[in-house]
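subagent[fold] <- orchestrator: predict structure for attached chain, return C-alpha cells only, no commentary.
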Amino acid sequence: MDIVTPAGAAAAGLRPSFRRVAALAAAFWSAGFALVHLYWLLGGRAGLPGGLSVLDNTPLLVIDVVAIPLCAAAAALALALVRSWGGRLPARGLLWAARGTAVVLIVHAAPSVPDWVALAAGHRSVAEPAATARFATLLYEPFFLAGGVLFGCAVFGRRLLPGDDGRR
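subagent[fold] -> orchestrator:
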C-alpha cells in the first residue's frame, strides 16, 4: 500500500515499483553511510585521505557522532515510504522529510559539480587537488549526490491522496 499516489506517473512512465526500488535503495544507502561513519568512529581509516583518523580530528569526530543517528533516521524514513508500518505516520510529514532529505543531499554535493565538469573536460587532473579535496570530489560528494537522487526518485511524482488528512 503506497502512502501516496502518482501525479502524472503514467505520463512520465514511472511505476510505483520504480519508487519502491528507489526508496529501498535510499534505505540501503543511508544504512551503508551510517556503517561507514561507525567504522570511522571506531578508528577505521580505510577510505579516508592520507590515513587520516577521525579519532584524531575533533570536527570529524563530532560529524561522525551526529551523522550516525541522522543516517539511521534517513534509512527509517526511506523504509517508511514503502513499508506498511509507515502508514501509521503522517503522510505529509513523510513526503516533506524525504523531499527535504533529497534537497539537502543534492545541495551538499552541488559545489563539486564544477570540479567534476573540469575533470571530465580534461581541464584538471585528478592528481591536482590535495588529498582531502580529491577525497571529497571523487568519493564523498558523489556519494551525497547518489543519496539525494535516490531519495528524489523515491518521492518523485508522489502526492497525497485527495482528502487525505495527513495520514495514510
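orchestrator: received. Logging for downstream: Helices lie at 9-12, 16-41, 58-80, 91-109, 113-120, 131-155. The CA atoms of residues 31 and 72 lie 6 Å apart.
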